[in-house]
Write a structure and sequence with these properties.
- By secondary structure, this protein is of the alpha+beta class.
- It is about 35% helix and about 30% strand.
- It contains 7 helices and 8 strands.
- An 8-stranded mixed sheet has the order 1-2-3-4-5-6-8-7, with helices on both faces.
- α4 links the parallel β5 and β6.
Length: about 230
Amino acid sequence: MRDLSQFKGCPAPQPVTLRGRTVTVEPYNRAVHLHALWDALGGMGTNERLRYFAAPDFGGVDDFAAWLEGVQQGKASWVAHVFRDNSTGRIVGMANYMRADLANGVVEVGGVAHGEAMARSPLSTEAHYLMAKHVFEDLGYLRYEWKCHSLNQASRAAAARYGFSFEGIFRQHMISRGKLRDTAWFSMIDLDWPLLDAAFKAWLAPENFDADGKQKRRLENIRRELGKEQTA
């Protein structure tokens, strides 16, 4: 067991710009990003894309804006960020740092929404790599959490692919949209990070993609291979 008697806690996440090879994570700014984000998530189709969120359906972009501003000011203290495709300059999705427990070095990534332009591309993987790297290497957190509706299979698959460990189902964890919700919990911890970091870097390397942009090795396989090397 590590001695953390000298651990002084972590700073609260702040809006930050994180630039990668394919994507840039940047702080949400209503004047700059609102309509681009709404369009990236499908306009009125945003309601279907966010069907597992606790937020009610939006009547339009103004409702979406009010909700996003409300969660940034609420007790969860979301720190909203959007994803910009470096090749096109277009906004393609969002995620938020939230529920930071500074004393214990724990923070969550949530409110994750990927637009269609992020599908089947390195954008989402690199965006979440940049956010995790910032949490562990710049801010010194010990634990990084991902939670989602237990029925949200796409979110659960994404968390597992990125290297978050599944920790179980919290039954009747919350009331969402007037119904009881079971929540799937995932986490990364600082002890995991060196291996996860190496796997992300290997997967994101240009040489891992062919001329058509298709991956040569899966992220999960790279992580498994690196884990075997560490224990050999």
